[in-house]
Amino acid sequence: MNVFLDALNGLPTDYTPIWLMRQAGRYQPEYREIRSRVSFVELCKTPELAAEVTVNAVKDIGADAGIIFADILLILEPLGIGFEFSKGDGPSIPTPVRTAAQIDAVADEIDAAASLHFVMEAIRRTRAEMETPLIGFAGSPFTLASYAIEGGGSKNYYEAKKMMSGDPGAFAALMDKFARAVAGYLNAQIDAGAQAVQLFDSWVGCLSPSDYRTHVMPAMKTLFAALGNRVPVIHFGTGNPELYPLMKEAGGDVIGVDWRIDLSQAYRRLGDDTRLMGNLDPAYLLGPREAMFAQADRILDEAAGHAGHIFNLGHGVMPEAKVATARALVDHVHEASARRR
Ligand code: CP3
Predict the structure, then answer these.
(1) Atom 5 of ligand 1, residue of closest alpha carbon
(2) What's the gap in Å between 181 CA and the centre of ligand 1?
(3) How many H helices and E strands in the chain?
């Protein structure tokens, strides 16, 4: 059918499909040109532009999948949590959610198709403009909750962890609200045409496995149950390979892993029949091509014989990368994996 959709479903493919997290972004001259005219949030909220940026990224590097241009924080607005992107220092939440009263004030339910209609419209437009499969996405409850509690980026997550240990009931209530809102949001993206969805648990790696089991797993199970089996779900987390077995237990059809674990070890820990996505260290995009190709070959060797491997970076493309290098990686993975079949 299609190499990416087949791999998602665990079917053998003629070559290994590849896409790159954050394949649309500041490393692209066209993206920078658009951003010189509109703010990041405006870009996310203008379906024509979001679709254009999504399609351009696929064309620029020759990826086997697109990911809808949006951000994990957009869902905070309908939940009643304001956020800002200020130039240079990433997102911030001016009024962090830290008290029981503030958690109560977070919306119990959102109508994502209405409040985030611009994302659905961008998905519909992208599907109409592009044949390549399209991934929808959302942040995982823990990553969203830690943004909301910390008020922005964090090094040590002390505020989130303080709530987790000091008022576990309140923390669980917040996680549950996020789980249900995210499920509704992803279901609306699927209704709009997303052919797969990815959950980004970008910050979960700060937790111990036992805290993951106690404080994160229940909300993840609620979320996966509410998604049903409509399209394949990629469950991505970064920072702590000890969590991957627990993430697999929580749910998802494909587990997205970062470079902190070798793929062969990930197959040993998670099972040879696990569908994995990953896991080149994005820093290799900045070094000599030969070193990047050698790492890509190592990853393909480790994945050999495992149907369903989807090549990706272990985390997002950085603004310092070059489009030509990203494209060279995609071409190399296609050719080198086809030779191995
Ligand atoms: O191409 C794609 O992957 C689709 C678009 C996408 C963006 N953000 C666009 C973006 C996706 C999938 C995301 C997810 C996202 N957003 C995550 C999870 C992935 C990860 O990196 O762990 C997180 C943690 C966020 C929150 C976020 N958004 C941060 C921390 C930042 C600032 C950091 C930075 O890179 O500047 C953003 C802004 C953002 N999201 C940009 C883009 C292209 C840069 C904004 C700009 O143009 O100035």
Answers:
(1) 69
(2) 20
(3) 17, 9
150: left (phi over 0), alpha (psi -120 to 50) or beta: alpha
Q: Is the CB of 71 under 6 A from ligand 1?
A: yes
36 three-class SS: coil
Contacts of 267 (CB under 8 A, 6+ apart): 274, 276, 302, 303, 306
Integer CA distances (angstroms), 236 to 152, 170, 241, 250, 294, in order: 20, 25, 11, 12, 24
- What pTM was computed for the model? 0.97
DSSP-derived 3-state class of residue 237: strand
Give the bridge partners for 134, in sequence order. Answer: 66
Tens place of pLDDT per residue across the chain (341 aa): 899 999 999 999 999 999 999 999 999 999 999 999 999 999 999 999 999 999 999 999 999 999 999 999 999 999 999 999 987 778 999 999 999 999 999 999 999 999 999 999 999 999 999 999 999 999 999 999 999 999 999 999 999 999 999 999 999 999 999 999 999 999 999 999 999 999 999 999 999 999 999 999 999 999 999 999 999 999 999 999 999 999 999 999 999 999 999 999 999 999 999 999 999 999 999 999 999 999 999 999 999 999 999 999 999 999 999 999 999 999 999 999 999 99
| C-beta of 66 in contact with ligand 1 (< 6 A) | no
Smallest CA-to-CA distance from 211 within 153, 203, 234 is with: 203
- The catalytic site residues sit at 22, 26, 35, 71, 147
Question: In this structure, which residue's CA is closest to atom 7 in ligand 1?
Answer: 71
Going by alpha carbons, the residue nearest to atom 38 of ligand 1 is 90
Dihedral angle over CA of 246, 257, 72, 24, nearest 10: -170
- Give the whole-angstrom CA distance, residue 88 versus residue 198: 26
CB of 104 closer than 8 Å to CB of 151:
no
| Closest alpha carbon to 180 in 213, 214, 120, 225 | 225
